[in-house]
From TrEMBL:
This is cysteine--tRNA ligase. One of its GO terms (molecular function) is ATP binding. NCBIfam families: cysS. Gene3D superfamilies: Cysteine-tRNA ligase, C-terminal anti-codon recognition domain, HUPs. Its EC number is 6.1.1.16. Coiled coil: none annotated. It comes from Ceratopteris richardii (Triangle waterfern). Residues 4-195 form the tRNA synthetases class I catalytic domain.
């Protein structure tokens, strides 16, 4: 699919200097839906938003399919002379080459809806009447302190740089916590929140897996109330995903099932529940299925928990040995009833993103949002 088919079908014209343009008037005669992706009437389509209007065009909205060569630019031979493809035609050509004329999903930023994607549709359909994209998905921008992230503003960074400090699961949870069409404001605090949430989810599932593997007897079947909770989680997930992939609602809906799971695992009242094991198993299966769809189900829970702990240590510039030493010093202070010193050690670690926890099995730690960090 390309310029040759568009020209053969009568939708293009050539200027004296070798520039080739797409005629939106010709296209609109047979395709009155031109502009529907952006929700614009034909008369609203104006050129000149990105570059100065070329007075040689038949319609100001016409766009270049091929540009004649300019000094210092890459150029290739063509029937119209040396030149290069236009901005829009490159995408149509690549999509047709690798995906064919029809494919399911085409993505891009909100700023590409018009004119880029609108014109991509027009030229693709002009070249091939069977051309079709089932779903167009346009994402919001990443902002930093309410400014769009861009190289020109100097506030640009790569995913690789983010992953040096944060686990991929934390980043993914952070991203799907905002609807894909909405702008997402990046900050270390928001990533810390996502990382803390990820640890909580995976630790809960790991505790559940350990409990179920240690208890062969399933106990009593679930009550009608328990079944209703599972059904509510299922229907909420299906409804939210059908609502234009409303992933923030899916994440929010996990809070109550996870709380119930922790009650069943760790509270006296929860452990007395006769249908406890059956309920835990059902919750585990449903939450795992949701996380798998979202790309948030790790292959190994112990491994991802250890990786999250390691990333937290990297952010705090501490090692496991450093934390162990501080925990030992805290234990010594507690034994000497020097509670001020004990609290100071705990608070210092918490400010570095390390939460000390005293359990019947001894003192341990988990990552947390640094207490000295604010949004």
């Amino acid at each position: 699919m390309g310029i040759f088919q568009i020209m053969e079908n009568g939708y293009g014209y050539v200027l004296e200097n070798g520039d080739v343009y797409f005629s939106v008037d010709k296209y609109a005669e047979k395709h009155p839906t031109y502009g529907c992706l952006a929700g614009r009437d034909f008369d609203e389509n104006r050129a000149g938003e990105r570059v100065a209007i070329d007075e040689r065009k038949r319609n100001p909205a016409d766009f270049a399919l091929w540009k004649s060569a300019k000094k210092g630019e890459p150029a290739w031979e063509s029937p119209w002379g040396l030149g290069r493809p236009g901005w829009h035609i490159e995408c149509s050509a690549m999509s047709a080459e690798h995906l064919g004329p029809c494919f399911d999903i085409h993505g891009g930023g909100m700023d590409l809806i018009f004119p880029h994607h609108e014109n991509e549709i027009a030229q693709s359909c002009a070249a091939c009447s069977e051309s079709r994209v089932s779903y167009w998905m346009h994402n919001g921008f990443v902002t930093i302190d309410a400014e769009k992230m861009s190289k020109s503003l100097g506030n640009f960074f790569t995913i690789r740089e983010v992953l040096e400090k944060y686990h991929p699961m934390s980043l993914r949870l952070f991203l799907i916590g905002t609807h894909y069409r909405s702008p997402i404001n990046y900050s270390n605090y928001q990533l810390e929140k996502a990382s803390d949430r990820a640890y909580y989810i995976f630790q809960t599932l790991e505790d559940c897996a350990h409990c179920l593997s240690s208890n062969a007897d399933a106990g009593s079947p679930m009550s009608s109330e328990d079944n209703a909770c599972i059904e509510k989680l299922q229907s909420s997930f299906q409804y939210s995903m059908a609502d234009d992939l409303l992933t923030p609602a899916v994440i929010a809906a996990l809070s109550e099932p996870l709380r119930i799971m922790n009650d069943l695992l760790h509270t006296k009242q929860g452990r007395k529940n006769k249908s406890r094991l059956a309920y835990l198993k059902a919750l585990q299966a449903e939450i795992n299925q949701i996380l798998e769809v979202l790309g948030l189900l790790p292959r190994s829970l112990p491994q991802v928990l250890e990786e999250l702990r390691f990333k937290a240590l990297c952010r705090s510039n501490l090692s496991n040995e450093d934390v162990d030493i501080q925990i030992k010093k805290r234990a010594e202070a507690r034994a000497a009833k020097d509670y001020d010193r004990s609290d100071k050690i705990r608070d210092t670690l918490a400010s570095q993103g390390i939460a000390v926890m005293d359990t019947p099995q001894g003192t341990t730690w988990r990552p947390c949002i640094p207490t000295n960090m604010s949004d």
